[in-house]
Write a structure and sequence with these properties.
- The structure is a homotrimer.
- With about 150 residues, chain A is of the alpha+beta class.
- Chain A has 2 helices and 9 strands, in the order βαββββββαββ.
- In chain A, the strands form 2 sheets. A 5-stranded mixed beta sheet of chain A has the order 2-5-9-1-4.
- In chain A, a hairpin with a 2-residue loop joins strand 6 and strand 7.
- At the A-B interface, strand 3, strand 7 and helix 2 of A face helix 1, strand 2 and strand 5 of B.
């Protein structure tokens, strides 16, 4: 708590499960973060932070994460979850969406939210990155996208 | 984590946005906390803590916060968000509400919740403070009230 | 933040209140955690951690907790909230459910989720523990089950 993360790690995954909660759990495992105790945070890319691949984090570590979570019990439905990040050396924003949409459609939505958030803060121009998971539900499915806020 | 905050900073704001998430983001900016990574917490005013104005916190800092968030896409609707805090030297409680109500109505609701929480804990008499944001929706609007739990 | 809890403390409680939020608050008091600032986390039993009784934690401490929360305004309704934990020396999972169910029914649901989560991770055999709160609503009732993730 009261720390400022220095690394932002984008991950995503999708999976089926026997229940909504275990489908979400399986999607987190696919995303590579199913061994962590995630703490949901709102959505700022810290000043001076950098995008990074996910480090090796011990099982059960309390880990602040911005995540987008979609779960559906409608077989055949296309679902997606997306995190978009606008990056400048002075920081930026992370925006999320999840819903019954294609990857292309959800990235369009998130792109517009990042644009608004960066413009409002006077952070232009900026780099834009996405983490997007797309999934066609078989029985009970989940799509997850996340930005792990790491340090060090 | 595992720390005990020593300052409680009440803030509030309201704004429009192009989406629900960016309206919320803009309301956080109006409240002065749109540069922070907020972590939602339940609702205790720590023993020995004091109300304080918001300190200068670096962009992206992981910041525990009790917040009330209202978003509406109904033009003309009056919305509000309120945090009420009952304070004694032995601590107190923070209660929240948000909905399609006036500031006066929401503060009445929150007042009754604070009363119940303080009475149950035997913390009477107490000081009562509110942070309340009220907004009439133009297109997509958000009202936010928050208690930042700071330290030091 | 970024810590790995070493103790997992299962608690539960149920209560009535004058509003949904204060019923929840009263259920937290019954569970013995109504004096803490809870931070919700997802659901991993850390490697090397142990089940433990709840230590004496100062009022207002920021405390990571997996919790299941049920609130109902339907007099006569039976409600419950349950946390199930699968434990091995290499860690495990915590699963939650809440709904208009009996203790027996909700533990069946949670048992199946724990089984799936442990099997997926190759963590078999394992010890299974539950924290379950059951309540018949009088006016506005809440049932809460929680796993406090403590350290030291």
């Amino acid at each position: 708590m009261y720390e400022r993360p220095t690394k932002v790690c984008l991950v995503w995954g999708a999976a089926e499960g026997d229940s909504e909660l275990t489908a979400f759990d399986n999607a987190l495992l696919k995303a590579g973060i199913g061994h962590l105790n995630l703490i949901a945070v709102t959505s700022i890319f810290p000043e001076g932070a950098a995008l990074s691949s996910l480090p090796d984090i011990p099982t059960g570590t309390l880990t602040p994460t911005v995540y987008a979570k979609m779960v559906s019990e409608t077989p055949g439905e296309s679902i997606s979850a997306c995190i978009g990040v606008g990056v400048t050396p002075k920081g930026g924003v992370l925006m999320e969406a999840h819903g019954p949409w294609s990857a292309e459609e959800i990235e369009g939505r998130v792109r517009r939210m990042v644009e608004e958030g960066m413009r409002t803060r006077g952070l232009e121009p900026y780099e834009l990155h996405f983490a997007t998971a797309e999934h066609v539900v078989e029985k009970i499915g989940s799509a997850v996208a996340a930005a792990v806020l790491w340090r060090g």
